[in-house]
Structure to design on (50 residues):
């Protein structure tokens, strides 16, 4: 995970996980709408998975 991807997670979490699949984007988008911090945390967790 590069510095650009972490910065993208902080700015716009759904864009950071767009290459991980539609389900990840939808989950991150819903969490971002409910609250910015849960969206950021979900994006970071999804990106740290192998």
């Amino acid at each position: 995970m590069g510095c650009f991807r972490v910065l993208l997670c902080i700015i716009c979490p759904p864009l950071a996980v767009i290459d991980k699949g539609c389900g990840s984007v939808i989950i991150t988008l819903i969490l971002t709408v409910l609250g910015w911090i849960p969206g950021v945390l979900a994006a970071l967790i999804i990106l740290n998975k192998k």
Notes: The longest helix spans residues 22-34. Residues 3-48 form one domain. The mean pLDDT is 92. The two ends are 10 Å apart (CA to CA).
